[in-house]
Amino acid sequence: MTALVHTRAELQPFLEGFANRKRGVVMTMGALHEGHLELFKRARHDCDLVVVTIFVNPLQFGPNEDFDRYPRTLDDDLKLCAEAGVDVVYAPAVEEVYPGGQPIVRVTPGAMGEVLEGEFRPGFFTGVLTIVNKLLNLTDPDVAFFGQKDAQQLALVRRMVLDLNMPIEIVSVPTVRDEDGLAKSSRNRYLSPEERTTALALSRALFAGQEKATEGADAVRDAATAVLKAAVATGRLDLDYLALVDPRDFSEAPPTFSGETVLAVAARVGTTRLIDNLPLTLTTHGAR
Question: What is the pTM of this model?
């Protein structure tokens, strides 16, 4: 049975009970779906204690973003956690996480957090890294599990753990997709049937780029761009960015790049903003 706790004091006995065993955490904002389920399953496989956090973090939302309408579905979330064998759900109040009100001290991502998502959502990654740091402190895990779908967030969390000498292993779990290719997201529920069809251009662009991975960075970008241009031409998709980046620092991969990359895209379909990405290995044109 999955326990529900709301304070660090209530969580403490579970942590103490597994003090000498492997403890894992999965951080979420709720509105859980099958993508989260894969994270829970991986954590359950790897760890003796699995803690899931559910907290809609106000620091991650800009003034024109959807904090108030972000879905809160705690009862359904608890059922999904129970099905996955989660031991504890930690769902703190804002006052528990930010006892001093709006935090004065925050974790800033530097230049790596100012591109792509950071450019289109100023301050977003400061909010992300601040809450991740806080929840790592509150849940005290050995391992934290993150989805590859939020690739830039994952890269920044890895860098934060490295730069701040945090003794925590960060494990990434591949993106879960519907049969039509659309990446699982809590925001998919906002899409009308027509908008969902339009949104498939994101994953189609990524897979078109993947097919060109042996032909170099420019070929990857060109193939993905062609798919997105067709969708933009319909007037139903507004593209924020398409980028092929080095996952170590999210700098653009030059034409001669060889090795691991991430092909990332973000766009608005109607009023819903979606992101997606695909890890690619470029195998031609020599090493950088």
Answer: 0.93
Q: What is the pLDDT along the chain (288 residues), one digit of tens a residue?
A: 899 999 999 999 999 999 999 999 999 999 999 999 999 999 999 999 999 999 999 999 887 777 887 889 999 999 999 999 999 999 999 999 999 999 999 999 999 999 999 999 999 999 999 999 999 999 999 999 999 999 999 999 999 999 999 999 999 999 999 999 999 998 899 999 999 999 999 999 999 999 999 999 999 999 999 999 999 999 999 999 999 999 999 999 999 999 999 999 999 999 999 999 999 999 864 444
At the topology level, CATH places domain 186-282 in Pantoate--beta-alanine Ligase; Chain: A,domain 2 (3.30.1300)
Of 92, 101, 3, nearest in space to 56 by CA: 92
Catalytic residues: 36
In terms of DSSP bridges, do strands 259-269 and 237-245 run parallel, antiparallel, or are they unpaired?
A: antiparallel
Domain range list for the chain: 3-173, 186-282
Q: Helix, strand, or coil here: 162?
A: helix
Class at the top of the CATH hierarchy for domain 3-173 = alpha beta
